[in-house]
Model the fold of this input.
Amino acid sequence: MLLGQELGVSVHTASSEHEATTLLREEDFDVIVTGYYFSEWPPDGGYRRIMSAARYQGFNIPVIFMAHRVSSEDAFEAAKLGAFDFLLLDKPIHPSTLVNAVKSALELRRIPKVFISYSSNDRAFAARLAHEIYERGWQVWYDIWEVKVGDSLAQKIEEGITSSSFLIVLLSKTSVQSKWVREEIDAAFVRQLEEQSIKILPALLEDCTIPALLRSRRYADFRESFDTGMRSIVQSIKTSAQPL
Done:
């Protein structure tokens, strides 16, 4: 097949929605390309079922839809659910368009994603850290950027942790007392035990009682200076991130 030849990847095909969703629940994929958007006009929300099946596998799997017609409302909703791209088929497209879209999706998958867990009292520090990580070309899950009005905070946090390669926990006197921070640490540990696909990076902002689950881990020390702690974070991400 074209994608296999051009990109040197293994390609699985499905001829029906049922076959596709079954594959998604049984196999691991780096990118999903589907022409299933509507089964008829008006749209029946097929993209929602595809995205739901993709979520079963992991929230960070790029999904590329191909469709003859896409409403702006559906495109926006699909993007919120995590769709990577839409290729419109209202006119002939060159095969290289699809190849380039898949190549871009694969490159995105190889960029580490970092989730920042913090107490609201440490928001200014978290914002600075998020910008520093983003400027280095990595993906960042920072709640101010990711959670919109009307979103379920618990669901967005779950999605963020599931899709991330690293979880940075900002440790301060207030964060170690935070219910949300404790739950985010617990969720990351569960994922680490089950999948070994996320690394927890403690970041010490000030002297405090470190949670028991993190006491055996080396931490990035920000107590003396931001730059010192940041160098430790960068080194950990660079040495731990593995290409897919």
About this structure: Residues 38-42 have pLDDT under 50 and may be disordered. The two ends are 21 Å apart (CA to CA). Strands lie at 32-34, 63-67, 83-88, 113-117, 139-141, 166-171, 199-204, 220-221.
